[in-house]
Prior knowledge:
It is a single chain. Helices cover 28% and strands 23% of the residues. The protein has a seven-stranded mixed β-sheet, sandwiched between helices. Strands 2-1-5-3-4 form a five-stranded mixed β-sheet, sandwiched between helices. Strands 12-22-21-20-13 form a five-stranded mixed β-sheet, sandwiched between helices. The chain binds FE2/S2 (inorganic) cluster. FE2/S2 (inorganic) cluster binds at residues 100-106, 137-140, 369, 419, 658.
Amino acid sequence: MRPDRAPISFIVNGAPASVSVAPMRRLSSVLRDELGLTGTKVGCDAGDCGACTVLLGGEPVCACLTPAASVEGADIRTVEGLGDGQLSALQASFLAHGAAQCGICTPGMLVAATALIERTPRPGEQEVQDALGGVLCRCTGYRKIIDAVVAAHRFSQSLTGLPTIPPEGKGSTRQDFSLPPVGQAVGASPVRLDGVPKVTGTEMFGGDAFPADALSVLVVRSPHHRAAFSFGDLGAYVVDNAGVVAVFTAADVPGINRFGVIPPFADQPALAEGEVRFRGEAVALVACEGWAARELDLADFPVRWTELPAALGARQAQAEGAALVHAGRPGNLLVRGFVERGDPDAAMREASVVASGRLETSYVEHAYIEPEAGHAFVDVDTLTIVACTQAPHMDRDDTAAILGLAPEKVRIVPTATGGGFGSKIDISLQPLIGLVALKTGRPAALAYTRSESMSSTTKRHPASMQAIIAADTDGKVLGMVFDGEFNTGAYASFGPTVANRVPVHASGPYVTPNYRATSRAIHTNGPVSGAFRGFGVPQATLMQETLYDELADRLGIDRLRFRRQNMLRNGSETVTGQHLAEGVGIGECLARLEPRWTRALADADAFNAANADKKRGVGIASCWYGCGNTSLPNPSTIKLGLSPAGKVVLHQGAVDIGQGSNTVIAQIAADALGLPLSDFVLRSADTSITPDAGKTSASRQTFVSGNAAQKAACALRGKILRFANVSTEARLRLEGGVLAVWEGDIRRHIDLAKLEADGDGLVFTAEESYDPPTSPLDAKGQGKPYAVYGYGAQIAELEVDLGLGTVQLIKITAAHDVGKAINPLLAEGQIEGGIAQGIGMALMEEYIPGRTENLHDYLIPTIGDVPPIETILVEVPDPEGPFGAKGLGEHVLIPTAPAILNAIRHATGITVRKVPATPTRILAAIREGRDR
Ligand code: FES
């Protein structure tokens, strides 16, 4: 029975609207599903994230909490109504400041900020924080959003001169913001090429373009950490529930019901078979009409559960042995990692000073604001899946294998991705909606709820680590021994990657001649741990950097100076024996921080001399990070060519999840080709159109895909120059459909329309690949795991309330060596966003299955939690990088949490041994310290 409906009329964006809907229907659903205003985003349906913020009578409200009946006669404004055909001053300011990364929070931010500046045209930072406090952003670190709102008034005078919203929508490069001239794209900060749709609400994310006739897919999930299950009468369930079309289980999966990121470890079923291994695991799909999906209660689904004993922690899993999961493997061990160099045991014996300790970290949720969403349909003989993702070609191959199709019979069309940070590398809903579309012949659509996104997708590995570091009396590090256990949860996912990457990085960017690092990925019945910005390195760096502080203090050496004494330099060898000939930038990072360090320490001393209840602390930590896969093939391929109409068409398959690859890779290609960025048109990722540019992960796109783009652009330029019979000194210019080539007195004009076009409609094309030169690690972990490393260091300044255990951050100063800042504004945005996630890891984020499956119990930093950030971009070029560039995206999170822990120690004298360092844990550590 379809639910009761009522006619409701209101004004939206200045125009009358009437709908007939259930009175209690969410306004967000009415706007999106009935009126097509998908600029209003849905992130939680609980009023926690603010992505659905609209103006109701001029006041910001969460549309997800607003019943349709309550807006009868009301005046509503959404993001689509902010610009009146042009960008508003605020939207322009967001673009100019790089305040939109993935863009999923941007409509809510813009709407809330519009209410503020209509009241207070020139707000200060505190007013912005107050007004935007209810809207969460997981990408930007908020600082550029604050800057954009504070500065919006400067754009108001030029409102009439601002660009008309381009009709092409997504991917358009038509903007009136000036783009850099020929040869000057690299190093400039043009507004991101995909920016306009993000600030106008026209960007299409995974849940924004569901076909009207699509079946809704609901997923039946395990409420238990471990259980056996069986189904009742599924046929009767379909018959008894109006609107339900079909039910599917693992028995309906036509292919190999397993997926995984590394073939030997592909172990996770798309739909569980008889036993579930974690809370939230999928067991069945209900395909139903859209109206029925809003009413159906999956508690009535005929499934019987028999709970089984579960191990939720790695230590418990080890203690209880093999019986819990993966009975076929010895114990619950997934995989080990190992690196050894020199004689660490002798170094410990001979050292003058050692520091040792243990440290634990928690499950951390990715908490992107866009829950997974997408739809699937069969296009002639090809299953087409339109969904948010970080890894389209991997999605295609996994989905094809699960559904028993040839890879070329599956097409993945990524939508805009509203944050990923590693979790949207693993497939999740792709095979589920694909299965329904294949079996029913109808389009199938699915948008995860917030709670199923949090309960079913991957997390950062909780780690339990111990280490000892030894030095001589001069403060020279002699050796280090590290051991870490990483809770990889119920299935493998990126557990092997974490176990391999951690021992390579656990030394930090320091010369460590004698070294042994062991790691283990342990299965439990907790959530699956996977890729998350840093692959275990942020956890290991917490261990190493906190011990570096203890060691420096014992030696009586300034903590920054101690790091400079031991840092890697050009010519150093790493713990894997890799000779670093050039491009080592940690020294420059620490040098640039030194004056800020001295000032911060003096400020803290002055504050502490005058205050007894609160103490100020200053902490420092460094990072290094290998860009790309660890000793594995890691190629990217980029194609570009000229269209007969005179555009450079860039087939750019590196998915831009907000970090800016659409813009950065175009900037690299523009300068390598010798044509301006304004001539470029993007053809973004689509497995049937763009070559495979690999996963957006491991900080590889600027470095790896950027190199492929540079090679392809150089190859294209070479073809053109040979065609025109001119030297490499010749210059190019596109004049409509004519390519002008000139060199001295030579002038050639090539009518592009007269040339034969390829299957993509392009003339003069080039396609090139790049695979970083690495080598396998031997039995002792010796070799060349990465071709390029990035470096960085951060200072955290904070105050600790000794009575409450609370921490107030005062400032973060970050110096990061990016080799070459292809786009400094985007690089800063990455740094600020990574720092915000590091703050969350250090101080508040702890995912507990069954207890924090929403964004009010699981806390991520809000706009008020991120202090001012000073960014210092260091450019020590690496000859292997495009224009010298290194990766950046993951490095930037790594030093934040250890710098904060070290600052807490500086303020209080205690080291917190488990993160997040919540007030309770800080107080307990202070009391324990006093008792000692
Ligand atoms: Fe704010 Fe991505 S830009 S969540």
